[in-house]
Amino acid sequence: MITPTTTSMRNSVPFTLMMFMLCVALQVVHGCLPKEREALLQFKAAIVARYNMLSSWSTPDCCQWQGIRCSNLTAHILGLHLPGDFHLEYDYEIPRRYISGEIYNSLTELRQLEYLNLSLNSFPDTHIPEFFGSLTNLRYLDLSSCDFSGGIPKSFGNACSLRSLDMSRNSLSEEFPRIIHHLSGCARYSLEKLDLNMNQINGTLPDFSTFTSLRELNLCENKLNGEIPKDIQFSPKLQKLYMNSNSLKGVLTDYHFSNMSKLRELDLSDNSLALTFTQNWVSPFQLFQIKLRSCELGPTFPKWLLTQNNFGYIDISNASISDIVPEWFWAKLALLEERMSMNISYNHLRGIIPNFPPKNRFFEMSLGSNQFEGHIPLFLRKSAILDLSKNKFSDSTLFLCWNGTFEALHQLDLSNNQLSGQISDCWTYFKSLTYFDLSHNKFSGKIPSSMGSLFNLQALLLRNNLKNEIPFSLRSCTELVMLDMAENKLTGPFPVWIGSNLKRLQFLSLGSNNFYGNLPTQICYLRNIQLLDLSLNNLFGQIPKCIKNFVAMAQKGSEGYAHDYKMAYFATILYELNDFLMWKGLKQMFTNNQLILLKSKQSLLRRNSSRNRKFA
Description:
By secondary structure, the chain is α/β, with parallel strands linked by helices. It is built from 9 helices and 42 strands.
């Protein structure tokens, strides 16, 4: 027998390595594997690709096709990225590229497939294909927004490499415990993200402690119901938990959260849940997002928030809290570094809010519908969106007129408080103000002329007890789409400049004042007007014939009632415009979808004509 020498073995190693590299190189040169190319062509033949979405799928090398990613070494197909835009919201005149039809099981030939994204396509009345569970190397599967129905196939439990499963925004209607049972094979050890939000999934909440790798669980906006069992727990690695907008009931206690030291984002909003913790419970987690709207947290202010030092968003609105906000909570806000948002509205919180110098600006601060009183603290000036409505604040002078420009403030709602006296004449400081509501307070006197410096203002609401004429300076607020000065004691002729300068107006409410004289023909320039209320004044003469050209009043739907603006350091902010007006003798709030009732273009001008004398 011939025994290889050490020298011959050393010489054979480089030769073997060179031959292997040559084979790999030859394989890559020749493009994708023929068997896998054929599998893709069979998949293409079974579906309908709209607007040439798969037009590149004809050349010899399938690794060069749109949406295909191959291995540089083996030429095996590793990724299939084919999201459409069927459900995207944009101009309907632009063709939408998407695929529909049957998802053929030829994809099982892609044995090395790790990534599959078919989101935002259209497969109505179709169940999720069973064969997806046999793709043993699949790590990432995104079937969101595809109109799938039914449930998750049992075979998915055998997808031992699956890390991310996104089935959100479909029409899945299976019982949730059954879905979890189908995933309880080896997939429960690998799965890190499970997104099922915005489906029709019902049933109770099962135990998740066996999903040992799960980091993100999204179950929001489904039909989950029933009591949360006292003995269930979640994955110890869970970082994000979203269960908002379901019909879950029951009490969550220390036990449910005891092993969740990595939790960063929690959303339990809009259920019928209560959070009850022991007196001195110290949470094992540090939350960045706390979303507990409409959960029962009261009646006392939740003490466990004392241990939370890193939150950038907190929503504990409508949480049955009836208490004085503790000083430690306000002090905590001063130490936060992020541009945080806070919503503590619709509770029974009371007391005087202390002032403190915050380190950073706030994004949205919503303290409305409580019982806060006294002065408005200066630190709230650093908010971008500030809602203090429906409280008992009685002093705004220092807040409004302290030296310095309000660079950050875009929306300010001080309505329904106990503010009184003259409206402060400090509006040159408000360079960015877009939405301002000061109505339903106890202000008197005239409207300050400096409001004319609010060049970015889109909505101005001033229902109070104001007198004199509307200042001529407001003609410079040419961005206004809503002007509400009803229920005051304003006088003078109808301002001609409203029609000639404020051409973007969609809502104009000047009812229940003392305006007199003819309605000027310049009102005809308000081509976009959708709500016009001049009732209960002393106007007389003829209604200009151009009123018949106010066609926006007769448009169906709510298009045009939502408005937006851009902020320097945030995305576009959207807000809606609603208004009170007298309708058939009753004061009603007309929201966006109710405004389609205003089809009689002269009805708001003519009603209660005893005040609008000879107005015909």
